[in-house]
Amino acid sequence: METFFPKEIYLLIGILIFALLIFLLFFTDNSNRSERNQKKLKKIPNELGKENSINLNLAITYSEMNQIDKAKELLEKIKLDQLKDEEKNIYQTMSQKLK
To answer: Where would I find the H helices in the chain?
Structure first.
């Protein structure tokens, strides 16, 4: 009977360790998700400023494909005050080409 009792203790300890690991994995995953969600929310305002850059790149692409009307529409959507200096130069060059 002495050998039977330690086996039960080892079984209980193993089950407790397994339950603890599952518990820890569940809660660390949730904390990582909340951190990831917060990082995504911080990135959203940065993405909004890129809309002008995207429209500028699309306007360049459309002008290269000889679709001048679409390129002009995209240039009209661009807000000059949100562009960088290099992008402003590109915008001015594009608007002069498309006139």
So the answer is: 4-48, 50-64, 68-77, 85-98
Provide the token pair at 56: 């500028």
Boundaries of every domain in the chain: 1-48, 49-98
Question: What tokens appear for 33 in the block?
Answer: 């998700």
Per-residue burial over 77-86, b if 16 or more Cβ lie within 10 Å, else e, is ebeeeebeee
Longest dimension (CA), the chain: 98
Instruction: Name the fold adopted by 49-98.
Output: Methane Monooxygenase Hydroxylase; Chain G, domain 1 (1.20.58)
Q: pLDDT by residue (tens digit) across 2-43?
A: 555 677 888 899 999 999 999 888 776 665 666 776 766 665
State pTM to two decimals.
0.51
